[in-house]
Write a structure and sequence with these properties.
237 residues; 35% helix; NAD(P)-bd_dom_sf; SDR family oxidoreductase; 7-stranded parallel β-sheet; SDR_fam; SDR; alpha/beta; Rossmann fold; two-stranded antiparallel sheet; 9 strands
C-alpha cells in the first residue's frame, strides 16, 4: 500500500502555489513542487520536495520529470506557475512574450502530456489555476489575458476528453489575489481586505474539490472578492 498520494505543483515556492502545496501536505499528499528559485521558499516539510526548474526550458523540464522517483504514482497535477507583463502591445518585448507563452501554455501542455497516462492509471485530477483576466478585456493585458483564455479552453477540452477515463479536471479562476504577482506591475490590490483574495482562500477551495471522491465533478469555478478595487502604484522619482 502506498504511503501517501503524490502531487506535482508548479510555481510551488510562494503565493498560491505554496498555499496549495501546504494544504495538500495537510491532506497527506507527498508534494513535488517545481519552482525557478526554490531557495526563496520559507516552508519545509518531509512530504514537500521542491525541485529547481525553469519551466521555459523544455529540456530541463524533461530531465526533471525523469528524476521524480514515484512519478508513476502522481494522482494530482496542479498547473499554477505564472507571471504577467502589462503594456501597450507595441512596447511588449519578444522575450517577454515568449516567456509568458512558455509558462502559461507550453509548459502546462507538456506536463499534462507527460503525466496523463499515470493520471489515468491512478484515476487522478488536474487542476488549472486560471485568471479572471482570461474572461474579460484587460487594458494592456493583451498577451497575458489571451494566454489565460487559451489555457481555460485547454482545461475545458481536457475535462471532456479525460472524464471517461476517470481523470477529473478542474479550472479555478481567481480574481484579484494578494501575492507578489503585482511586484513588477504598475498596479496592485487595494488596502480594503474585502477587495482581494488570499492564497490560502484559493487553496481552501481546491481542498474542498480534491479531499474526497464524491462521484461528481465541478469542472470550473470562479472566485472573487466582495468588492473590485485596484490602485495604481506611486511612481518612483
Amino acid at each position: 500500500m502506498k504511503d501517501s498520494k503524490v502531487a506535482l505543483v508548479t510555481g510551488a515556492s510562494r503565493g498560491i502555489g505554496l498555499s496549495i502545496s501546504r494544504m495538500l501536505v495537510g491532506l497527506g499528499y507527498k508534494v513535488y513542487g517545481i519552482a525557478r528559485n526554490p531557495e526563496n521558499c520559507n516552508y519545509s516539510n518531509d512530504k514537500f520536495h521542491l525541485i529547481s526548474c525553469d519551466l521555459n526550458d523544455v529540456k530541463q523540464l524533461d530531465r526533471i520529470l525523469d528524476t521524480i522517483p514515484d512519478k508513476k504514482d502522481v494522482s494530482l497535477l496542479v498547473h499554477n506557475a505564472g507571471l504577467a507583463y502589462f503594456s501597450p502591445v507595441e512596447e511588449l518585448s519578444s522575450d517577454k512574450i515568449r516567456e509568458m507563452v512558455g509558462l502559461h501554455i507550453t509548459a502546462p501542455m507538456l506536463l499534462t502530456t507527460h503525466l496523463t497516462r499515470f493520471l489515468k492509471q491512478n484515476k487522478g485530477r488536474i487542476v488549472f489555476i486560471g485568471s479572471v483576466a482570461g474572461k474579460e478585456i484587460s487594458p494592456w493585458g493583451n498577451v497575458y489575458a489571451s494566454l489565460k483564455a487559451g489555457i481555460h479552453h485547454y482545461a475545458r477540452e481536457l475535462f471532456a476528453e479525460l472524464r471517461k477515463f476517470g481523470v477529473k479536471v478542474h479550472l479555478i479562476i481567481p480574481d484579484i489575489t494578494k501575492t507578489d504577482f503585482y511586484n513588477h506591475l504598475n498596479f496592485e490590490p487595494d488596502e480594503d481586505p474585502k477587495s482581494f483574495l488570499l492564497p490560502d482562500q484559493i487553496a481552501d477551495v481546491i481542498r474542498d474539490l480534491v479531499a474526497e471522491d464524491r462521484g461528481w465533478v465541478i469542472p470550473e469555478i470562479q472566485i472573487s472578492p466582495e468588492f473590485f478595487k485596484l490602485k495604481r502604484k506611486n511612481k518612483v522619482k
